[in-house]
């Protein structure tokens, strides 16, 4: 499965090799958007989840315009991998955390905007980080 800009050795001419490790890459085979760190992370994912599929020799070419929903999933993926979250809310803080979460849920359901939903989805990483 080669892209048009890829050589047989697995190098992509459309992207510099130094920036591949710092980019999040979407798995084209997963129904739900899943992102991984560079080509190596995607190859590890392919080996564990998509064993019947062949491992691609090159990353798929990134689209020029990333949609806002993809950026939300990338943000969530980064936060999940890098931000530790409290497992349990301390008793003394439960009321204030519950009120804050209720406010986020209410805004997301009443306004139904992407920013309100992003605030709700990132709530644990913003409020409950260790």
TrEMBL record:
This is Uncharacterized protein.
């Amino acid at each position: 499965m080669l892209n048009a800009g890829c050589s047989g050795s697995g190098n992509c001419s459309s992207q510099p090799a130094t920036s591949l490790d710092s980019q999040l890459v979407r798995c084209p085979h997963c129904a739900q958007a899943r992102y991984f760190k560079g080509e190596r992370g995607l190859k590890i994912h392919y080996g564990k989840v998509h064993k019947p599929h062949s491992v691609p020799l090159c990353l798929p070419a990134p689209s020029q315009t990333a949609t806002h929903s993809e950026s939300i999933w990338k943000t969530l993926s980064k936060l999940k991998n890098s931000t530790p979250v409290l497992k349990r809310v301390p008793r003394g803080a439960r009321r204030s955390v519950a009120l804050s979460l209720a406010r986020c849920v209410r805004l997301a359901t009443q306004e139904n905007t992407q920013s309100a939903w992003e605030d709700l989805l990132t709530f644990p990483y913003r409020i409950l980080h260790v």
